[in-house]
Design brief:
Radius of gyration: 36 Å
Oligomer: single chain
Shape: rod-shaped
Distance between the termini: 73 Å
Structural class: mainly alpha
Strand order of the largest sheet: 1-2
């Protein structure tokens, strides 16, 4: 009987040792899996971070090009806005001594700033689903807001172009010789309706200047955000 119980105790001891060994093996397997997952996640994060930096740099490059175009168009718009204000002053003063100056300015009514960006990295990211790599949602929201500003700019420029074709050109072809830039009907230049046309254009161009300035500030803000985000990576 004692031998029997001793045998049972020995079997129990072996079972306990086996159980401890089995638990230890399972623990090591689970630990290995967790470590492997952690390493995979860490590597994936590094890949995602590099991808994000690449996209941010692409967006930054496009925004710098857009900013250059915006500033150039803004300056172009300001140049002729200043001229048109001078034209209004000449007409209001009925200053006939400056009729050729007024004629030269009138010929510039056919000119207008026209912002056209070269590419759209943001829309490409949205359409491809790769916008998920941009982890700073403030940048995404500000890019979306900038898209809306761009749309407003293009609408104002289309309105400006339509005003030129519908109002300026039909009047100018009757008043000015474009080949010599000489005034053929000086009395028309000092008519109140002619002044109204300049007032219409200056009002439209002031709106364009405001929206250009808005876009410029938005771009500069996003560029600053992108620089900070790249440094943080």
């Amino acid at each position: 009987m004692l031998k029997f119980f001793r045998k049972i105790n020995m079997e129990r001891g072996r079972f306990k040792k086996y159980l401890v060994y089995l638990i230890g093996e399972m623990f090591l397997i689970v630990l290995g899996i967790l470590v492997a997952l952690q390493i995979h996640n860490w590597n994936q994060q590094r890949v995602n971070s590099r991808t994000e930096i690449q996209y941010l740099q692409n967006i930054k490059r496009q925004l710098k090009e857009d900013l250059e175009e915006i500033v150039g168009n803004k300056q172009y718009n300001q140049k002729y806005l200043k001229e048109f204000h001078s034209a209004i002053s000449i007409i209001q003063a009925n200053d006939r001594s400056n009729i050729e100056v007024l004629g030269g300015i009138s010929a510039n009514l056919s000119k207008y700033s026209d912002f056209r960006r070269k590419s759209n990295v943001y829309q490409t990211l949205i359409n491809s689903g790769e916008v998920k790599y941009i982890t700073n949602y403030d940048i995404i929201e500000n890019l979306q807001s900038l898209e809306e500003t761009y749309t407003l700019i293009n609408r104002l420029e289309e309105t400006h172009n339509a005003a030129i074709m519908n109002f300026a050109v039909p009047t100018l072809v009757d008043v000015i010789s474009f080949s010599t830039l000489t005034v053929k009907k000086p009395e028309v230049l000092f008519d109140y309706r002619y002044q109204n046309m300049f007032v219409l254009f200056t009002g439209l161009m002031k709106e364009k200047e405001e929206i250009y300035t808005k876009a410029q500030k938005e771009i500069e803000h996003i560029l600053s955000q992108i620089d900070m985000e790249i440094v943080s990576k």
